[in-house]
UniProtKB/TrEMBL annotation:
Segments forming domain Nucleotidyl transferase: 14-267
Domain Glucose-1-phosphate adenylyltransferase/Bifunctional protein GlmU-like C-terminal hexapeptide: 323-381
Keywords: ATP-binding, Carbohydrate metabolism, Glycogen biosynthesis, Glycogen metabolism, Nucleotide-binding, Nucleotidyltransferase, Transferase
Keyword RNA-binding: no
Designated name of the protein: Glucose-1-phosphate adenylyltransferase
Pfam families for this protein: Hexapep_GlmU, NTP_transferase
Record family assignment: Belongs to the bacterial/plant glucose-1-phosphate adenylyltransferase family.
Length: 409
């Protein structure tokens, strides 16, 4: 029996935008789309949004895929399709749906291309979600707030430090919750007198009246159908956009779209109590994941303090230099580190084996020579980088394009 206190979602459907490459994650997304990247042990980034949708009672979902969709599609079919009614979780790959090599031309274009299917099913409200953020949220409350507002479009908003806000759509609201301005990734970010030092930003979570959205999509050219650049500014101009503010206290939401953000968020889940509800474990157990990283194979025990862990080798623990140190570092599934390795602010890519005695993260120039190093000091290490280092050691090597300057490659 449906809980009378919760909104009826039988005429509500969801489109999950899962086609992004995540270019700011560089080599990590060379073979995988961003939503399929591992996060918090035996999970993937997309699992957080899927778990939210299931808990919220959103029973129909179209997943719009595009870049490198193979792993993501397999994961969703294997681990999440059973959480929906038969046929209610549907994958729609951009090139197949549009019949064009470029696929979906923008975030809203992914909805436009699947609009006939949604309207044929009698959908009245559409929840649009991004597949690449880490958070726990009940979308049913947002749907209820959307209905109560009378708006045609509702945007979930959170606040972030003003210096970080240029990575998002920046929202200014009136005394109520109507949105009076929306700027997509402005630089500089205008000051908001109501939020000193901070800015209100879009979380990339929307609720639309489907008929209204369909009418808007019909008048916006297919080459310019993007929520942040086109749909939301128009909704604001028409007075049809409302803000849904997430709780101020205790709410955790992270956009893990850069190497620094990805590493730091992973560390938040490694230290004690997780900062938000975890999706159920998908696939391998925690024991199996630790074994895959070499933790249960090469090392006798581990000591953890804050963001640093020390690993004692099974053999030669009393020999100086044989202990392994990981400081503010993340080993992704299948990564291995040999005895004597020291890693600081480092991400070791899946399947990468770091050889004995290698020190990474303590010498910026040396790191930049062989690995991908961000301006903030995160170092990404892959198998290919280690092979390059082994082959070219001793010869001058040009650093990666963004190794010291923080530029995207």
């Amino acid at each position: 029996m449906r809980d009378a206190r919760r909104p009826d979602l039988t005429a509500t459907a969801t489109v999950l935008l899962a086609g992004g490459r995540g270019s700011r994650l560089h080599e990590l997304t060379s073979r995988e789309c961003k939503p399929a990247l591992p996060f918090a042990g035996p999970r993937r980034i997309v699992d957080f949004t899927l778990a939210n949708a299931v808990r919220s009672g959103l029973g129909r979902m179209i997943v719009a895929t595009q870049y490198r969709p193979e792993t993501l599609a397999r994961h969703l079919k294997t681990h999440w399709a059973g959480q929906f009614a038969p046929g209610a979780l549907r994958l729609r790959e951009g090139t197949a749906v549009t019949g064009t090599p470029q696929g979906y031309g923008g975030t809203a274009a992914a909805v436009a291309a699947n609009l006939d299917e949604l309207q044929a099913e009698g959908v009245r409200e559409l929840v649009v979600l991004a597949a690449d953020h880490v958070y726990a949220m009940d979308y049913a409350g947002m749907v209820a707030a959307h209905r109560a507002s009378g708006a045609s479009a509702t945007v979930a908003v959170d606040t972030v430090p003003r210096h970080r806000a240029s990575a998002f759509g920046v929202v200014r609201t009136s005394e109520g919750s109507r949105i009076e301005s929306f700027l997509e990734k402005p630089d500089p970010v205008p000051a908001d007198p109501a939020l000193p030092g901070r800015a209100q930003v879009s979380m990339g979570i929307y609720v639309f009246d489907l008929d209204w959205l369909a009418s808007v999509l019909r008048i916006i050219p297919g080459t310019a159908q993007d929520f942040g650049n086109d749909i939301l500014p128009l909704a604001v101009a028409l007075g049809e956009a409302n803000a849904y503010r997430v709780p101020d206290e205790g709410f955790y939401w992270r956009d893990v779209g850069t190497l620094d953000a990805y590493r730091l968020a992973q560390l938040e889940f490694q230290r004690g109590e997780p900062p938000c509800a975890l999706p159920p474990r998908i696939g391998a157990s925690e024991h199996e994941m630790r074994a895959a990283s070499g933790e249960l194979i090469q090392f006798a025990f581990r000591m953890q303090t804050g963001g640093m862990s020390l690993h004692a080798p099974r053999l030669g623990a009393d020999t100086p230099g044989r202990w392994t140190m990981l400081d503010e570092s993340v080993l992704l599934p299948g990564a291995r580190v040999a005895p004597g390795v020291r890693l600081t602010r480092t991400i070791v890519a899946p399947g990468t084996s770091v050889p004995a005695g290698l020190v990474i993260g303590e010498d910026a120039d040396e790191d930049a020579r062989w690995f991908r190093r961000t301006e903030e000091g995160t170092v990404l290490v892959t198998t290919q980088m280690l092979a390059r280092r082994a082959a070219d050691r001793g010869r001058p090597v040009a650093p990666f394009a963004d190794s010291r300057m923080g530029r995207s490659a």
